[in-house]
Structures are given as structure tokens and as C-alpha cells.
Amino acid sequence: MRSDLFLSGIRYSADDVAQKAKKSKTATSSGTASPLGAVTPPHPKQEAPPYPLASTSNSADADMSIPRSRSTGDLIGAAAATLAVPGGGAPLRPTMTGSSAKYSLFGSKSTIGAPEAAKVKRSSLHLGALPMPHIPGWATPGWSTPGTEEGGTPFSEWGASGEEKRRRRRREKKKRQEVYITMHVAEILQRQEFILKLARAWMMFGAPSHRLEAQIQATARVLDIQVSCMYLPSVMLFSFGDTATHTSDTKFLKQTSALDLGKLLDAHRIYWRVIHDQLGVGEASQQLDELMKKRVLYQGWITVVIGGFCSAFITPISFKGSFVDALAAFPLGALLVLVQNLSARNELYSNVFEITIAGLLSFIAGAFAASKHVCYAAVASGSVVLILPGYIVLCGSLELASRSIISGSVRLCYSIIYSIFLGFGLSIGAELFHAVSKQRVWGADDYSCTSVHDPEGPWWQRTAGPYWAFLCVPGFSLFLTLRNQSPLRRKELPQYVAVLISCTGWVTNRFSSIAFPGRSDITSALGSLAVGLAGNLYGRFFNGTAFVVMITGILFQLPSGLANGGLLSFASTNNSVGSNYSYGTGFQVAEQLVSVAVGLTVGLFCSAVLVHPFGGSRRRGGGLFSL
């Protein structure tokens, strides 16, 4: 039986292997000449090669590590020039002879029948045991051992390695895509969360509701978010669209509102930094959370004192009261704020708070008027000034003018019913005093207080003159600003600016009422026009926020509009005529309230057009935070 030894296409016989093994014993120290003419160096001692040897296992099929050459020609030449039998000798000559001993080379097996082959201790010789010189560029990592279970050759495994690289490359690309999608979705959700928190903060702190939708849309355009929103009183609806999946995510946001000028300015600053790429949405969301959890600036007895001063300062300048009337209105205004703070803890009582507190204050004012030194109309009107629906009327009229029909109609109707509630409470208090004291309220129908104030009497009993305005107008403006939680010392919100703008509006309203008597709509329109011009000019040329400096001056316009035959019509008519006339008087109050609201709206929008004739930035929503 004959088995050949293959080396990349060159065939060696087993007889040549045995012959070369015999000649290796008689080799001299000078070396042995090979049939090919090469001289084999002597082998005084078998030294360990500089490369790792194959396993010493007796298995003929054991794996061995063979280096890889750059080309087939290099592999053939190197093996043919250096291949020798164990123990030294000349390289094998390619012949065709029989064999009986086994050699393993590249997975092929050969046998030799020479007697010298029996002296070999191992029945299986591996190529790694043969003296193999180091050829530069031969050993390249990445190839596996030939003759393994896969049974591949270096060339087949080279192809397998390329396929594995392509698979690994595809897996890495898919993983990168998954990471990008995950991060992209996370960024979108983070931006959506910021928009929701920003809308909640604006609603909570009393931002102008007629521009909430436009401002949210402007913010979404900057953040590259597709959103549609609709505002209803205390509710806002969001719909976030996804063009990739053709789906949408709808969110309902419910939040009651109350004026807080300090926090509103902080929220606006966060919004401004985000849309101008100065703050990330993640950090901005955290700041909004901290801002909404922050306690109010003024609370407890401080708000009670502020309420008392507001009632005391508004009585002489808007309701023709005297110094004594202002002193009587101070405790009533403080009592109103105290009961209001307590009613916030009881949800059931908060539903009837306006009616009950108006009745209580009317009863106390009637008791003061019984002394004939205090004007009932001035004290009763000044004591309830802080619960007049001024801000509700303002927001409703602005929303109607901005084509927000649903929310504007709801607010305006609510303000009318709210005013009727207040008038009903005042009439209940007057009737209760009449039932208890068996006498009518002194001066209930005297809105100018001429029957009580003696022009020839002492200064503290006379009707306040025009010079009182230099003290009372700035005082009421300051305490009304503090009532709306405005910081007393703040660089971004200077109190003197809000006070000056409010004084400008009052002066305009005062002189227009002299020029147009009985026309509350014209007087409120001119007053709001002056306030709007001053506030918008400040916001445009001094980089300020127009809304926070204008709101005090706007709220100053409403008490004067409702004083002359306004809410006190209930208290005066219920003492003399029937309830049918009183019922009709309620609608007269509503008509007067609507006329004041229309005047405020016209004046504010005219001022905005005059200051911003070309509008603001469509991308960033410039000018949206002004009335």
C-alpha cells in the first residue's frame, strides 16, 4: 500500500525519507551535501526553535499551528528548501516511493517502510516538530489550524474570516442604528416633557392665556417638535405627531391659575434661554420642577397686611372716600384676605366664598355707616376690591379679540356671573343689617358720599381731594404688585417701572372720565392704551417683560369702571324697590362690565400694534409675552 506526502502539489516518496534519515547518521561536522547542491549545516544539538512547537500528543490527528504565507509560491519554496526528517539531514527529494510510517502535513497522511522509521519514538510526526525557519511576513494572526474539525484550508478560512467580518460589521451597524433610535426617541420625549412642563408653569403662574397656544407653537418650532394644542380655561390639550409612524400622542393638562409675577418671570427666563440655545431641555425641565415646587414669596400675615393697605389706598381715589373711610376699609380688606387664605383649605367653602365674604363686609360697612361719619358705598366698594373679577374680564376679552371664541366666551360669561354673585352678597349684607338694626343703611344710594362728608368739616371727614392721588395711586400700585407676588427688590422686575406705568394709566383714565362722563368704555380704552404703550415700549427698548409691568396698571382700570353705579346697585335698590328691579340691575352691572372689558381690549391691542407694527419673530415667537 502506498501513501504519498503532499506539499502544495509537490510529491515526496517514503523511500527517500528513509534514505535521507540513514545519511544523516554519517554526516560530518562540515555538513552534508544534498542532491540539490545545498549544504546542510551540522546538528550538534537539537535546539528549541524560536516558535512554539506542536503538541506532544500521540494522536495523528492532533491540531498544529502553522503560519500563513503571503502567497502559495512562498509557502512551496520555503517548505521545499528547509523540510528535513527528525534528527537532521538533507531536505526531502520529490520522488514517488512506497511508505509505511505516518507523517501529518496539511491534513494529509503518508507511510514509509524503511527500517530507520521504526527508530522514531512517535508514530505520528507533526510539521511543527520539523526545523522551520522564520520567514518575514509568514505568520499573520487570524488563521486557524489546518486539519481541524472544520476541515478548512487557509484559503477557505480566509473567505470565512471575511464573511465573519461582514457579519460583525452588519451587527455593529445595526447596534449603532438601535442606539441612535433609542437616543433620538429619548431626546424627543425629553423635549415633549419640557413643553408640557412649560405650559403647566405658565398656566399656574397666570401667563396671558390668549397667547398660550401661539407661544407653545413657537417653542415647538424651535425644538423641532410637531405639536398641536388647544387652550380651554384651566385645561390645555396637546397632540404630538410622529410622521415616521403616522401616529399621535394626546395629552390633557389641567391646572388652575393664579397670578404670581415673580415665578412667572423666572419661567419666562427659562423659556428664553432654551429657545436661544443657552440651556438644554433636560436642565430646563428640572428648573421648572423646582420653580413649581417652590413656596410663594408672601404668605400668612404678610398677605393680610398687604390686603388691608390695598383697600385703604383705593378707597379715597376711586370711590370718593375720606381719610376716615380709608381707615375703616383697612380692617375689612385684611379680613377678606384672611378668610380667603382659610377658605383655600376647605374646598366646600371655597364655592361660596365670594357671596359670604361680600355679605359679611357689607354688613360691617352698614354698621360703620350708622355712625353717619363713614360712607357705606366707599367702604363696601373698597373692601371687596381684591376679589373683583378684573383679571378674569381682561383674559376673557383678550381671548375673544384673539379669535379664541370658546375660552373667551367661557371667561367673559363667568366674570359676569361672578359680578352678580358679588352684588348679591352685598345686597344680602345690607338686608341683614336692616333686619337686625331695624333701620336702613345710611347713604346706600349715595355714590359720591355727599350726605356723609361735610365740605366745611375737618380734613379727615372731607372727600379726598386731587392731591391725595400723589400718595394713594403709587401706594395702591405698589401693594397691588406685592399682592400679585412680585419681589420687592429685583433687578429684572423693578417696582418703580410697574408703579410708574400704573400711575400713567390712572391719570389717563381720570382725565378721560372728565372729558367723557358716563362712558366707561372710552375711559378704560384710553387708560389701557396708555398702559399698553408704556409697557410695550419698556419691553422692546429695555429688554424687559411687558406683561409683568403692565398687569398692575390694567387691573387698576377695573375698580374705577365698576364704582359708579356698579356693584353697589344691588345694595341701594334692594332697600327701596322690589326684587324684579334688582334682578334687572344685575344685567346692568353685566353690561357695564362688558363695556369696560371691551375698552380694555381695544386699548391693549392698539398699543401692541403701534409698538410692534410688523409683528415679532415667527420662528421664536417674539413679542408673544406681552399683552
UniProtKB/TrEMBL annotation:
Query: What range(s) does the Threonine/serine exporter-like N-terminal domain occupy?
Result: 193-432
Q: How does it sit in the membrane?
A: Multi-pass membrane protein
Q: Where is this region: Disordered?
A: 17-70, 143-176
The GO terms this record gives for MF are: transmembrane transporter activity
- List all Basic residues biased stretches: 166-176
The regions listed as transmembrane in this protein's record are 296-315, 321-339, 351-370, 376-400, 412-433, 467-484, 546-572, 592-611
Principal location listed in the UniProt entry: membrane
Give the Threonine/Serine exporter ThrE domain ranges: 496-607
Q: Which domain of life is it from?
A: Eukaryota
Instruction: Enumerate composition-biased segments (Pro residues).
Output: 41-52
UniProt GO cellular component terms: membrane
The yes or no answer to whether the keyword Transmembrane is present is yes
Per UniProt, subcellular location reads as: Membrane
Pfam families referenced in this protein's UniProt entry, alphabetically: ThrE, ThrE_2
The record's similarity note reads: Belongs to the ThrE exporter (TC 2.A.79) family.
According to UniProt, the name of this protein is: Uncharacterized protein
Organism lineage: Eukaryota, Fungi, Dikarya, Basidiomycota, Agaricomycotina
